[in-house]
Amino acid sequence: MKTKKIGLAMIALLLMLTTACTHQKNVVKMGPCRAGDAWGYANKRGKVAIDLQYHETHGFSEGLALVKVSGKYGYIDKNGDYVIQPQFSRAHSFCEDVATAAVKGR
Questions:
Q1: How many angstroms separate the CA atoms of 53 and 9, rounded?
Q2: What would the pLDDT profile of 8-65 be if each residue is shown by its tens digit?
Q3: Nearest CA to 73 among 62, 61, 84, 60?
């Protein structure tokens, strides 16, 4: 029963963080794109701006994007440079300068 309450509390927290991120700072005007199984980012004209090299990509939030490569999540900037190296088994985008992430499921 305690585990269920903790799980519900975590879901509520994630929902609050998600809805709190309606205003974005450091807006990057690129979106995820893919060719085959490789993902990268394209600018608003559809031109690839960050090479197709990731297994999974997410939109930019607060100037950083969550990407997955070799089974681990990390964060890149608008140039495709790692700001936080891939090391997480699970992760979420930044909101209000905070992101949740887990190492080895913790």
A1: 36
A2: 444 544 444 444 455 556 678 899 999 999 999 999 999 999 999 999 999 999 999 9
A3: 84
Burial class (CB in 10 A: 0-12, 13-18, 19+), 4: exposed
- Considering the entire predicted model, what is its pTM? 0.75
Report the C-alpha dihedral over residues 71, 53, 46, 75, rounded to 10 degrees: 50
Alpha helices in 1-106 (DSSP H): 2-20
Rounded to whole angstroms, the Cα distance separating 46 from 69 reads 23
DSSP per-residue codes, 60-79: EETTEEEEEETTEEEEE-TT
**Structure tokens given for 66:** 């969550």
Distance between start and end Cα atoms, the chain:
20
